[in-house]
TrEMBL record:
Pfam family, one: Methyltransf_31
Superkingdom field: Eukaryota
Role summary: Protein-lysine methyltransferase that efficiently catalyzes three successive methylations on 'Lys-36' in eukaryotic translation elongation factor 1 alpha (EEF1A1 or EEF1A2).
GO terms, molecular function: methyltransferase activity
UniProt-recorded name of the protein: EEF1A lysine methyltransferase 4
BP GO annotations: methylation
Alphabetical UniProt keywords: Methyltransferase, Phosphoprotein, S-adenosyl-L-methionine, Transferase
Organism: Coptis chinensis
Reactions accelerated catalytically: N(6),N(6)-dimethyl-L-lysyl-[protein] + S-adenosyl-L-methionine = N(6),N(6),N(6)-trimethyl-L-lysyl-[protein] + S-adenosyl-L-homocysteine + H(+)
Length: 262
């Protein structure tokens, strides 16, 4: 990675700014390693309290195995554990994120949560291993240099499809993939609904000002209706950013992923 892509400037309120100079840095594993070596906790998009009600509609704690993709230094796995979901495996591409997450969980007594270094494009698990796969903001990383969101670059599509095929493979029949994203349904549907996938697709929204999408894809439940058009539980909102959102560092991430600039 070039120098200057990962500035660690300290603002007047003593917050370290990890915003890279170009959004494509989010695709660079070195960016994440450098960031995680000094950042202890950052919650991309929103924390658990904002979508807990949606999780609880889908995940029943009893004997559910959950795989979290790209855990970073988020507290999502701890929150799931507190809600009774104890069979959790987290992966991240960054060895530094994984090492720090393992230490943090051990210090807090969450010894049952497994954390390992792995690439979500090549998951080291047998087929049909998990009841749930969940990701928050991790798939969106693959879109940061997608170009025209209506017609993403073939390289982007290939990576996203590789990831989705892996998620589909490791999910049990009837298992659910939860994707928490700012990508709007008209951009995500063509990929989620590619012919090779047997999952049904639904979504909800959450958040104030800027709305995030909570997609649920249930394996083996795709119907002819869903092939011709999926059901949605709320209309996608128009783009609307509050000042608070504009000041948030992941604003840059979003603008480069979707059509906010168009
Ligand atoms: C935008 S952050 C989201 C972190 C966390 N999920 C959250 O909600 O705060 C993206 C995370 O995905 C990880 N990541 C990026 N590419 C990955 C890949 N191919 N496989 C696994 N993790 C990846 C990064 O290291 C980073 O931790």
């Amino acid at each position: 990675m070039e120098d200057g892509q990962t500035p660690t400037t300290v603002s007047s309120n003593n917050k370290v700014d990890f915003t890279p100079s170009t959004a494509s840095a989010y695709l660079d594993p070195n960016y994440w390693d450098k960031r995680f070596s000094s950042e202890e906790h950052y919650e991309w998009f929103k924390d658990y309290s904002h979508f807990q009600h949606l999780i609880q509609q889908h995940i029943s704690p009893t004997s559910s195995s959950v795989l979290e993709l790209g855990c970073g230094n988020s507290k999502l796995c701890e929150e799931l554990f507190k809600d009774g979901i104890t069979d959790i495996t987290c992966i991240d591409l960054s060895p530094i994120a994984v090492d720090k997450m393992q230490k943090r969980l051990l210090d807090k007594g969450y010894t049952d949560i497994k954390v390992l270094v792995a690439d979500m494009l090549e998951l080291p698990f047998e087929k049909e291993s998990f009841d749930f796969v969940i990701e928050k903001g991790t798939m969106d990383v693959l879109f940061v240099d997608s170009g025209d969101p209506w017609n993403p670059r073939p390289e982007t599509v290939n990576k996203v499809m590789a990831m989705l095929k892996e998620v589909h493979r490791v999910l049990k029949q009837d298992g659910i993939f939860i994707s928490i994203s700012f990508g709007q349904p008209h951009f995500r549907r063509p990929l989620f609904e590619a012919p090779e996938f047997t999952w049904s697709l639904n979504w909800n929204t959450f958040g104030d000002g800027f709305h995030y999408f909570f997609y649920t894809l249930r394996k083996g439940r795709r119907s002819m209706d869903n092939i011709n058009g999926c059901r949605k539980t709320s209309e996608p909102p128009s783009i609307c950013l509050f000042q608070e959102e504009l000041e948030d560092e992941d604003y840059m991430f979003r603008t480069n992923v979707e059509e906010l600039g168009s």
